[in-house]
DNA sequence: CACTTGCTTCGACAAACGTCAACATAGACA
DNA sequence: TGTCTATGTTGACGTTTGTCGAAGCAAGTG
């Protein structure tokens, strides 16, 4: 029997799919589980303050920024910390303490995955 | 000093302004205004039910789906209607009534804009 | 050690959100 | 006209979220 014919057309994944996420939104309806996971990432960017924080880190020189660099987003410092934590929990940022300061940087694979879910729509 | 300068910035603009909003998130920190606009779009996809609805419309044949096609997302019909409205207000979907049914389709420009803000990160 | 600075966690509160049942509206059809 | 079906809107509800001040760690300095 030729078991060759029904090969699942899932080739070795693209290098940046370190994230077990989802196909482009146009490919097929998401399952409840996929939607749950993915929505968490989009929700993380669904707040103006968090979006500014993320953009600030993403555009900062060296790809990272310490919390001390961000004090002008219009909210108190505990609130900044709270939002950074949310972004971390969503997998969009990572943090590292170096001496006195804590540095945040973006997690490219996760962001790329989000982009791919949207990008193929155009 | 003219008192004209302080125009109330609340124009009666269309709720779905399909404008390419902002530069890639890596280019420079977003302004408060840009973040406000953009966050509205991401927030729209930040709910599992909405994400499923959106994916359902986006992946449906012909690029559009009527509400009758979507009855298995696990919430009541009024809730579906509510979420579709949210997606419309965010500019991600448009709707059109044809006879008995209402058809929804994705707004490609807005989705593409979101993808561009993320896509250049990889 | 005490003191200062950078950041996180805690406790509380108002506002926003998701959900549903009930009601309302729009069109098709008899 | 009236009735039926397909969607949207309203009002109410419990839950989640964003925000702050106060307190708690962590690390450097005198």
Short description:
The structure is a homodimer of 122-residue chains. The first copy, chain A, contains four helices and three strands.
Key terms for this structure?
122 residues; elongated; Arc Repressor Mutant, subunit A; three-stranded antiparallel beta sheet; 4 helices; 41% helix; DNA-binding; 3 strands; homodimer; alpha+beta; disordered N terminus
* Order of strands in the sheet with most strands of chain A: 1-3-2
Q: What's the number of domains of chain A?
A: 1
Structural class of chain A: alpha+beta
Question: How are helices and strands ordered from N to C of chain A?
Answer: HHEHEEH
Overall, the morphology of chain A is elongated
Q: Can you tell me the CATH topology of chain A?
A: Arc Repressor Mutant, subunit A
Largest sheet: number of strands, sense, barrel closure of chain A: 3 strands, antiparallel
CATH superfamily of chain A: Winged helix-like DNA-binding domain superfamily/Winged helix DNA-binding domain
The CATH C-level class name of chain A: Mainly Alpha
- What is the second-level CATH architecture of chain A? Orthogonal Bundle
Quaternary structure state of the chains depicted: homodimer
Give a count of the beta strands of chain A, DSSP E runs of length 2 or more: 3
Give the largest interface pair and sizes: A-B, 43 and 42 residues
> What portion of the residues of chain A fall into strands of 2 or more residues?
5-15%
Percent helix range of chain A: 40-55%
How far is it from the N-terminal to the C-terminal residue of chain A, by CA? 42 Å
Q: Which ranges of chain A are low-confidence, i.e. pLDDT below 50, for 5 or more consecutive residues?
A: 1-18
What's the tally of helices of chain A?
A: 4
């Amino acid at each position: 029997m030729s078991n060759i014919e029904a090969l699942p057309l899932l080739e070795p994944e693209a290098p940046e799919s370190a994230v077990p996420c989802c196909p482009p939104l146009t490919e097929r309806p998401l399952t409840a589980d996929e939607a749950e996971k993915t929505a968490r990432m989009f929700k993380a960017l669904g707040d103006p303050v968090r979006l500014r924080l993320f953009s600030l880190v993403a555009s900062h020189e060296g790809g990272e920024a310490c919390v001390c660099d961000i004090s002008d987003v219009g909210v108190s410092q505990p609130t900044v910390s709270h939002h950074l934590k949310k972004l971390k929990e969503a997998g969009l940022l990572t943090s590292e303490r170096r001496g006195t300061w804590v540095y945040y940087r973006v997690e490219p694979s996760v962001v790329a995955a989000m982009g791919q879910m949207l990008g193929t729509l155009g």
